[in-house]
Amino acid sequence: MIQTVDQYVFLYRTLIEGILTMDITLSLQEYLTTRKLYMDIKSQYKLLEQLQSTVEFSYQGAVEPANLNKNRVETILAPDNSRPYLMTQVDKTTDYINAVFVN
Length: 103
Hints:
mainly alpha
């Protein structure tokens, strides 16, 4: 039986913690498997960080003044060798669209 406000607060906090953390128990085997998977992913990520791209891309179309407003994000540009070229009949427009072909 709860007799004081402090006991009520303690019980309330304990119940909230129990409800919010019900399904986070792991067996030793689950922990070891999860940890191994995490370490494998972490080591692969570190390796990827060390690798540098050997392919160079040209972004001439993307950085032309007439096309700058077509790029929503300044750091995400369509390389010239893999972007579609628009065929437009409208004067004073360009063939640029910030998109790429993907296989």
